Amino acid sequence: MNQTIKRWVLVALMFPALTGFAQQNPPVSNYDYKQAFSPLFYTKNGTETRSASGQPGAKYWQNRADYQLTAQLNESSNEIIGTEVLTYTNNSSDNLSFLWMNLEQNAFKKDSRGAAVIGPRGSRGGTKGEILDGGFNIKSVSLLETVGAKTTEKQVKYTITDTRMQIQLPQELKANGAKARIKISFSYISPKYGSDRTGVLDTKNGKIFTIAQWYPRMSVYDDVHGWNTNPYIGAEFYLEYGDFDVAITAPSNHIVVCSGELQNPTEVYTAEQQKRWADAKNSEKTVAIRTADEVTNPSSRPQGKATLTWKFKIKNARDLSWASSASFIIDAARINLPSGKKSLAISAYPVESAGDKAWGRSTEYTKACIENYSKRWYEYPYPAATNVAGNEGGMEYPGIVFCEWTSKGAGLWGVTDHEFGHTWFPMIVGSNERVFAWMDEGFNTFINSISGRDFNNGEYKEPDQNMNQAGAFLTNPELEPIMVTPDAMKEDNIGLLCYMKPGEGLTLLREQILGEERFDQAFKTYINRWAFKHPTPDDFFRTIENVAGEDLNWFWRSWYLNNWRLDQGISKVKYIKNDPTKGILVTIDNLEKMPMPVTVQFKTKSGKTSTMNLPVEIWMRNSSWTFKANVNEELESVRLDPAQKLPDFNPANNTWTAGKDKLEEDVILDPYVGTFSSKSFPIKVIFEEEDGVLKATAVGQGTLPLEPDGKDRFKHEAYGIVIQFNEAKTEAKLIQGGEIVLTREK
Fold first, then answer.
1. Residue 485 contacts residue 435 (beta carbons within 8 Å)
2. I want to staple 603 with a disulfide (CB 3.0 to 4.6 A). Which of 227, 437, 583, 636 is the partner?
3. Which has more pLDDT, 47 or 680?
4. Which residues, including other chains, have CB under 8 Å from residue 628's CB and lie 6 or more apart?
């Protein structure tokens, strides 16, 4: 214990404490610094699989899913008929007696859970009222076993529960690397609108099929929850990584685009188109592969066959999606990556979407955002980036995205940039979208905000956000916290809580708390540590803290775990000894539960402006803070957060203006200075002025600063000590329940 505190406690014990000291007219504040800065943020220690520093542990593992897929598209019935050979590798430390798979198409069955949770107002989910025989038709599930050169199929038992399928293995799949090969035959009819993530769009030159969630996909078995089997009722996905090899058979007048790289271009493109592809791979500008005029020209497609099979491969991906249409215009351009490697920006869209103010710039946008994110954060890993015009508002998959076919200008840039931004979250950093949507949507929204400033000298740069205004609705008490799973949020709140608020949280970290250099290093470290792995929120929080060297528990607790509000306000301004040349004291309060650093702007009557920055630590043990300003002349105004960068929902108390707001009268301390002693107790107290503060020193003991608390009255609030001087300043009563009368010696 501090010796000054010890000594003054002894002074207080020299007489009976009858009642505790009560603050007079305390400011109304909901802030609790003990709660905000509690050290018990993390509920578990690091493990062998996940380090306390936020990086994968020495024994981190994750399972793997490799796929060989086929698909046949029936254009008239919208049916996809497919086969799947899944090679599943169990790298966990557990033996597995069964496997779980996702059957998201089953959400479009009439009796699905997803359909049941759509109310009369409608939803982004579902089929928008389309009546169809939806869902997977699982025709067979078998285990493939190879002995020597012979492969046999053994039918296995499986159980389908809504959008999940459990496969019973005839014998346990052993831990630490054992493999199982599962063959599945399936089909389904695609909805025209499939939860804004897959669908069929009618155009004047044919249907556009944007195909996703189209094959049974492995559920993730991890070290956090074991099997992750939450049903598909609206929230997105959590998937394993692996290699994909797919063959898609479509009508020969169609062009098919897909995740990954086309393996057989000579079989599916004309000779002229192959030359154009070669030109595009070496071009900084968009090269037309198939023009609008050629769409209806039969010679723009290989002749002689009713169908063509398109073969694609993509490595180390968590999914594969594709699109097919006779109506596609195709164009492309080279993408330059930081390592010197190249990728290819591709766009596929109908003539209705063409034009220099619309999809004619899609490849330019795609190239720009991929190059930008690769330079800033982590290199793009796929051989192509394909933007498809469909009836989805915007949806992301590895190496391919589906964007609204009517988008133009800033709208098309925004949706393209956002959907390809998802390459980094969650395609590279594979978080659990179904539970923690903010870890991909919010992080992506954040990197989009920087990309928008970078593109084409700020062509589509959005105006700076007024965070005072944003704070009012982002911390509305009616909202759920960010950390709530999206399926448990009001659907109207998802845009705020999964996208905007977590994105603004990272902007606050970068611009107001850590600074760009420290934040960017920490954020890039997080991406590199967890590329193609499965991080949790704790892994993110711990990484940012460890790399930046900052305890941010107060921020995570305020912005992510809880829906706390920020309200900083100015409560007092006074000139020391009522003379600004001797200094200025300003008192600010933290009135709501969220703490933040403070920026204070001073404007003087002579026209000068200056700023002070106060760290968040001023709130570690205070709800009110008084500081000396960095000016020594008469003030015109004092303002908190002058650039409106903090989510302070109540800016009305952020400004003090001379002549309008009260200037506190400073207490002239000279009459109180002197030495006082007691006739009844062996105590002598010296009152001195230091930096405009009256300080009391019990001789031989310690010094305490005192605050004015009324006429001739001072206090030390923490220890409940009150000093009451008489009118003549010849006596002072030391009060703490009881009283000691002190008499002036000199």
1. yes
2. 636
3. 47
4. 583, 584, 585, 691, 692
Q: CA-to-CA distance for 75 and 79, rounded, in angstroms?
A: 7
Of 451-460, 473-482, 543-552, minimum mean pLDDT range:
451-460
Q: What is the pTM of this model?
A: 0.94
Structure tokens, 467: 């965070």
- H helix count then E strand count, the chain: 14, 40
Residue 536, φ and ψ in degrees, nearest 5: -110, 170
Phi, psi of 453 (to 5 degrees): -75, -35
**Cα separation, 197 vs 642, whole angstroms:** 42
Alpha helices in 359-440 (DSSP H): 362-376, 409-421
What are the start-end ranges of the H helices in 662-743?
Answer: none
Query: Would you place residue 27 in the very low, low, confident or very high pLDDT band (cuts 50, 70, 90)?
Result: low
- CA dist 691 and 175 (Å) reads 70
- Cβ neighbourhood burial of 641 (10 Å; 0-12, 13-18, 19+): buried
What is the C-alpha separation between 252 and 300, in angstroms, rounded?
11
Look at residues 315, 296, 321, 305 and name the one whose alpha carbon lies nearest to residue 267: 305
Q: Which is nearest to 289 in space by CA: 345, 205, 208, 247?
A: 345
Q: How much is the average pLDDT of 95-113?
A: 97
What do you get for the CA distance between the two ends of the chain, in Å? Answer: 33
- Paired with 740 in beta bridges are 734
Query: Which helix (H) or strand (E) segment is 609 a member of?
Result: strand 609-614
Is a pLDDT exceeding 80 seen at residue 472? yes
Nearest-angstrom CA–CA distance, 739 and 721: 10
What tokens appear for 293 in the block? 């005029």
Give the residue among 332, 133, 325, 143 at the shortest CA–CA distance from 248: 325
Contact in structure between 91 and 176 (CB atoms under 8 Å): yes
Going through 128-237 in order, the beta strands assigned E by DSSP cover 137-147, 150-155, 158-161, 164-173, 178-189, 193-194, 198-203, 206-211, 217-218, 221-222, 226-227
Smallest CA-to-CA distance from 123 within 237, 211, 210, 235 is with 235
In order of 337, 520, 640, the CA distances from 371 in angstroms are 6, 17, 39
What b/e string do you get for 561-594 counting C-beta neighbours within 10 Å, with b at 16 or more?
Answer: bbbbbbbbbbbbbbbbbeebeebbbbbbbbbbbb
Amino acid at 470: A
Strands 261-262 and 329-336: unpaired
DSSP state of 436: -
Secondary structure class of 159 (helix, strand, coil): strand
Strand order in the sheet with 624-628: 568-575, 584-590, 624-628
For β-strands 713-716 and 721-725, DSSP reports them as: antiparallel
CA torsion angle for 141, 146, 152, 158 (degrees, to 10)? -20
Q: DSSP letter string over 264-280?
A: -HHHHS-HHHHHHHHHH
Q: Phi and psi dihedrals of 419, rounded to 5?
A: -70, -40
pLDDT digits (tens, 9 = 90+) for 357-385: 999 999 999 999 999 999 999 999 999 99
